[in-house]
Amino acid sequence: MSMPRTLRSVPDLVEAGLLPPEAVRSDIARVGERYAVALTPAVAAMIDREDPRDPIALQFVPDAAELLVRAEERIDPIGDLAHSPVEGIVHRYPDRVLLKAVHVCPVYCRFCFRREMVGPSGLGTLTPEQLDAAIAYIAARPDIWEVILTGGDPLVLSARRLRDIMERLAAIGHVKVVRFHTRVPVVEPDHIDSELVGALKASGKTTYVALHANHPRELTPQARAACARLVDAGIAMISQTVLLKGVNDDADVLAALMRAFVENRIRPYYLHHPDLAPGTSHFRLGLAEGKALVAQLRGRISGLCQPTYILDIPGGHGKVSVLSDAVRESDDGCFRIRDFRGGEHLYPSGSDAPATGSP
Ligand code: SF4
Question: N6-(pyridoxal phosphate)lysine occurs at which residues (predicted)?
């Protein structure tokens, strides 16, 4: 019997029984050509094939709705490019930078905020010279206290390459914290082995791993064991979840997810309002709906389980807590949002702006 493999195309998904045969001649095939597709064996095994609205399938199996691009959607919704002084670095806040060493992921989320940058035809992996320049940028700026490895998913890199990056960060005295944003413990749990864990600790800095998971069913026994290997090694874990229509826009589902994080020694951190990425409006709630949902978590679950509901202000103006007074609904139905520098921005009330057609 052949080993299960990562499903990387619409025909692969048809063969695995996750799409009907006619999908290869439909708009879904166009979606598969436009945006990257990947489901690891661990993800495919989580999907309930009897459920046409399965919350795991919705996150990873392409949908014809992705061809619909709305007027408010943007190629670079959180404005990475506007804050990228050198290739691979995003420097939006004074004390921290993103280091995007790689733009591939083990899975491709249908709602991805960097969907125009990740995947086989995305921005690729930094060349050795680009990585040198990125590390030199960090080394030259004493205000940088934290380096956040994101991408793409940095844990797709080999343990050898991760160790190399961590050892280079170890040599920079002002960097105290290194954080990884990843889906790997859930979607490829066997990849979290002792070699990889050792590499993550190689800098001697404090290492955080921010786990991206959106539904409690993603925390399988294998995923829980992978997280335990990280935490037992002294790596702190925090969570990040994207609030998604049809996946987790339900107080019971969110409560179960946040509790599962805490039970696994993962501190709930961010609940992201979905970004204005092209072709993702079918996932997007209005801000008012999101606020009402998050309000239901108060009192229902322990304080340890409460995430911070945040919005990345479109255009690269940073994050804002949706429940704070920096986010105000105005009479015209839009939201007025104040960024951390005091600038004001308008945000649409919901996903009812006109569509502009295919990307
Ligand atoms: S893992 Fe993150 S970067 Fe990769 S496709 Fe999903 S949301 Fe995008």
Answer: 319
Q: Which atom of ligand 1 is nearest to the CA of 182?
A: 1
CB within 8 A of 284, min separation 6: which ones?
245, 274, 276, 350, 351
Cα of 63 vs centre of ligand 1, distance in Å, is: 17
Domain end residue (candidates: 69, 87, 115): 69
Residues with catalytic function: 92-93, 96, 105, 109, 112, 114, 275, 312, 319
User: Angle of helix 159-170 relative to helix 128-139, nearest 10 degrees?
Assistant: 30
Phi, psi dihedrals of residue 196, rounded to the nearest 5°: -70, -40
Examine the domain organization and report whether 157 and 187 are in the same domain: yes
| pTM of full prediction above 0.85 | yes
CB of residue 257 inside a 6 A radius of ligand 1: no
For residue 23, is it within any domain?
yes
What CATH number is attached to the domain comprising 248? 3.20.20.70
pLDDT digits (tens, 9 = 90+) for 149-174: 998 999 999 999 999 999 999 999 99
Range of the domain at 26: 10-69
| Location of structure tokens 């070699």 | 195
- Cite the annotated binding site for [4Fe-4S] cluster by residue number: 105, 109, 112
Q: Whose CA is nearest to atom 8 of ligand 1?
A: 112
